[in-house]
Amino acid sequence: MTNDKYIPTIGLEIHAELKTATKMFCNSKNDPDEEHPNVNVCPVCMGHPGTLPVINKEAVKHVLKVGVAVSGKLADFTEFDRKNYFYPDIPKGYQISQYKYPLVMGGSLQNVAITRVHLEEDTGTSLHDRGDYSLVDFNRAGVPLMELITEPAIHSAKEAADFARELQLLLRYLGVSDANMEKGEMRVEANVSVQISDIRYQTSDIRNKKLGTKVEVKNLNSFKAVERAIEYEVKRQAEILERGEKVIQETRGWNDIKGETFSQRQKEESHDYRYFPEPDIPKLKLSELPEFAINNLKNELPELPWTKRARYAEDFGVKGNDIEIFVQNKKLAEFFESTAKILKDKKLIQLSANYIINDGIDEKISPGAFAELIVMVGNGELSSRGAKDVLAVAAKDSGKPSEIAKNLGLIQKNDMVILEKIVKKAIDDNPKVVAEYKIGKTAALEFLVGQGMKISKGSANPVILKQLFMKHL
Given Cys at both, which of 13, 16, 130, 320 links 177, Cβ 3.0 to 4.6 Å? Predict the structure, then answer.
């Protein structure tokens, strides 16, 4: 079985709990860190008879911001629907979700087309580790939950995991969700199908592609799990097709310990949920709410990750891998940009980026002090090794880098008379190494430079030393 015989097609369904003070349809506290069970509950989110839900405006706004960020089409008319199914952690016996009229349609992220983004309420949490019985914690029941669905436009496990990472980053930049997968604040489900590669069925139109039988894989609570589960499922389905058998449409779980998917139930279709408009919640005409106007939403957006990447490359000349570290770490990025404003020179800015990423920056070091250090390295006053020593002292005792360098005797000697004497002594002390260099062993030169640094106790400028050795030899 060749790798290119079967084409995998993947679509993702990603749920993210939204950061709001209260739940989606009531005033119970939305607190993902609550450790005591069933304390953030009320008659509304517990589904008591006679209670009426009220829409959380902030949750709606969060989803609309995501829609603007991914260039989706925002709905004007929208409504909520009842998704009917029974499970112990759904207190009402149905979930309030959106079916026909979601808040956002279309858009793209990481060059992957998005089908829709809608808003619903989360379920409670079932705890099955109690032996012969289970418990249910309803603290999470009713928490606002965003669901983003992609087109079946992903063709590798890595691409799927990268999409989920970028969405998590976007949600954090927008401040709409912490999307912590370990806490269950972001959950990924993958719809995976495999079909035989056939030129007759190749088309750029996603909706007209001849796809294989779709299998939904649930319980993917880490990016590594997303990648491993999809890789396993693609291999499993390809092996079924290779045997001449048919893939069954079903929902499968993921066992992270065994590294394999397992059958849970046959896949439900939308009609199985008997969707109908939620009678207790009024329809929404978003154009009647000024704060939901697209221009107002755009003005509230921060700089987005992809814009930041482009700016760091263009304005600062930072390399790709280094850019990603700054994009992922807001604190480091803020320190870097404050330093860059002081330095202004592009080469010094790039040098500062290298030090920030490779050596880290202690909170005691200010951008001004760090910029002073970078200037000293840039003009040859301080060696790279010396700079690390100064940073270590500054992190411990604070102080100006120039003063620390002087006190430690780390200011590099650039006096040519002194350096000439150092070079002459190193040459005189190492005749065999000099002879090796003269017959073409270039490594001998680095040894001599090292000897010169040793004689100067690390205070000589290694660049000038090297030039002088080459001149004399």
Answer: 16
Structure token pair of residue 373: 């250090």
CA distances from 2 to 34, 39, 197, 250 (A): 50, 55, 11, 26
Domain boundary among 298, 319, 348: 298
- Residue that is last in its domain, among 248, 281, 298: 298
3-state secondary structure of 108: strand
Instruction: Clarify whether residues 146 and 292 are in a common domain.
Output: yes
User: How many domains in the chain?
Assistant: 3
Q: What is the CATH number of the domain that holds 444?
A: 1.10.10.410
Q: Are residues 433 and 329 in the same domain?
A: no
Q: Cα separation of 395 and 397, whole Å?
A: 6
Assign 351 to helix, strand or coil.
helix
**Mean pLDDT within 431-454:** 88
Beta carbons within 10 angstroms of residue 424's beta carbon: 13
Asked if residue 1 belongs to a domain, the reply is no
Give alpha helix (H) positions in 155-254.
157-174, 223-242
Q: Amino acid identity of 428?
A: D
77 and 175: one domain? Answer: yes
Structure tokens that stand for 353 in this block: 């980026």
Whether residues 157 and 44 fall in one domain: yes
* Confidence bin at 94 (pLDDT 50/70/90): very high
pLDDT tens by residue, 287-313: 999 999 999 999 999 999 999 999 999
Residues 49 and 78 in one domain: yes
Nearest CA among 313, 230, 297, 284 for reference residue 76: 284
Confidence of residue 329 (pLDDT cuts 50, 70, 90): very high
CA dist 342 and 61 (Å) reads 37
Pair 363, 275 in one domain = no
pLDDT of residue 207 exceeding 60, the answer is: no
Whether residues 213 and 242 share a domain: the answer is: yes
363-400 confidence digits (pLDDT tens): 889 999 999 999 999 988 888 888 999 999 998 887 89
Buried b (16+ CB within 10 A) or exposed e, 236-249: bbbebbeeeeebee
Q: Residue 317: which domain range?
A: 305-407
Residue 9 tokens read as 């097609």
